[in-house]
Design brief:
heterodimer; A: alpha+beta; three-stranded mixed sheet; 6 helices; 5 strands; B: alpha+beta
Chain lengths: ~190, ~210
């Protein structure tokens, strides 16, 4: 397979959820129900007593219960509809993982957003001359926000910080492209 | 990055979601609308009679056709279980322990003299060693996957908290290039920079 196409495929696989976990959960559940149905039906065919309840009887009981107890049935129905909608949403939504990527000639590089955030936070802390704990960084799909809590008495050179952040974003060259927002908290921290 | 069929996963979720929505709507209809409830219960009773012979009591093979329907049910159940097992096993495919397989052949007489197989553990070990000097890198794991005929390596690098991620990626890429030279072949690679639990609780790197 052509290298560029392979790399694009790899990048896509690494940045989006495969939905293996929920799909496997569904398959296992269906398999368990099938096993139970099969066992019960075989017992019915053999004339043996049922383990729990024979499937046809279960359907009858459910229908009767549904008619007799409307409120719990309606509630159960609503819950089931909700669960069904959640599964449909899982199927249709892209499921982007929290990471950004870039491609070089040699490799596809994928970086967790948490790593990107903490690395920018450390770098900002150094330029702003505050402790790393006083910088809060968060990375979203196209926005990175950095919040600095300054030390009281020492103002932060916001322009210098912004410039450093912009130049690093440029050099990191991650996709989807990140826009940064640097804010300095109004409250200073004493000491430290 | 394995061969799990992502489209199939989503199709299964969508299908089951629709089934649940349909079931929920019928339950709600039965609960809220008296007429729907009566139509539903009578239909279920009739179907159960066909399956189990009598409506309600657990008597066996009452009606002549019931054994047939029950057998059909069992067959369907078996098919479903087999399909499920196959599917679960299929999810794990693609992962391989072989990073490179080269057949050494002499062009002169076109005979294959043997295969050179390089295990993925070798890749992990050599990259680990190459990167051990960097204190920002806490660990290296390498896994190999077969994708559309080619083998691709996924190199997971654990970064220390606060360490410059881009720089770590570049350093790893350089180590991979050096390994390419030593190996004589370039294997498609994905470099993944992650944070580990240790990375989160350890001392953050001070940027100088």
């Amino acid at each position: 397979m052509n290298r560029v196409r392979l790399y694009r495929r790899m990048a896509r696989r690494e940045t989006h959820s495969s939905r293996s976990v929920p799909a496997t959960a569904v398959v296992v559940l269906v398999a368990l129900v099938a096993v139970w149905t099969g066992v019960e039906t075989v017992l019915l065919l053999l004339g043996r007593p049922a383990l729990l309840i024979a499937p046809p009887m279960a359907l009858v009981a459910a229908a009767d219960l549904g008619a007799a107890a409307p409120v719990p049935t309606a509630a159960a129905g609503a819950a089931t509809i909700l669960l069904g909608l959640v599964l449909i949403a899982l199927a249709l939504l892209p499921g982007r993982r929290r990471r950004h990527h870039r491609m070089t000639d040699r490799a596809v590089i994928v970086i967790d957003d948490r790593v990107t955030a903490s690395s920018f936070a450390a770098s900002v802390a150094s330029v702003a001359r505050v402790r790393p704990e006083h910088v809060r960084a968060s990375v979203a799909r196209s926005r990175m926000s950095l919040r600095i809590t300054p030390q009281s008495g020492s103002p932060v050179d916001v322009a210098a910080v912004r410039q450093r952040v912009e130049s690093r974003i440029g050099s990191e060259d991650l996709r989807p492209a990140l826009r940064s927002r640097v804010t300095v908290g109004p409250n200073g921290v004493v000491g430290g | 990055m394995n061969g799990a069929n992502r489209v199939a996963n989503r199709a299964i979720l969508a299908l089951f979601g629709l089934v649940l929505v349909a079931a929920g709507l019928s339950a709600a209809a039965v609960a809220l609308d008296r007429k729907a409830a009566m139509a539903w219960t009578s239909r279920v009773h009739a179907a159960s009679r066909r399956l189990a012979g009598t409506g309600g009591a657990a008597s066996v093979a009452g009606a002549p056709g019931s054994a047939f329907w029950l057998a059909v049910l069992v067959t369907c159940a078996v098919v479903v279980v087999v399909a499920a097992v196959v599917w679960i096993v299929w999810q794990r495919r693609g992962r391989t322990s072989t990073a490179v397989r080269r057949s050494a052949a002499l062009p002169a007489d076109r005979r294959r003299t043997g295969d050179v197989v390089i295990d993925v553990a070798v890749a992990e070990q050599s990259l680990s060693e190459a990167l051990s000097a960097y204190s920002e890198i806490l660990g290296v794991r390498v896994a190999a996957f077969r994708m559309r005929g080619s083998t691709a390596l996924k190199i997971s690098v654990v970064a220390r908290r606060g360490a410059p991620a881009g720089h770590i990626a570049t350093v790893t890429e350089r180590a991979v290039l050096a390994w390419d030279n030593a190996l004589g072949v370039e294997i498609p690679a994905c470099i993944e920079v992650v944070s580990g639990i240790r990375a989160r609780t350890g001392t953050p790197a001070r940027v100088r």
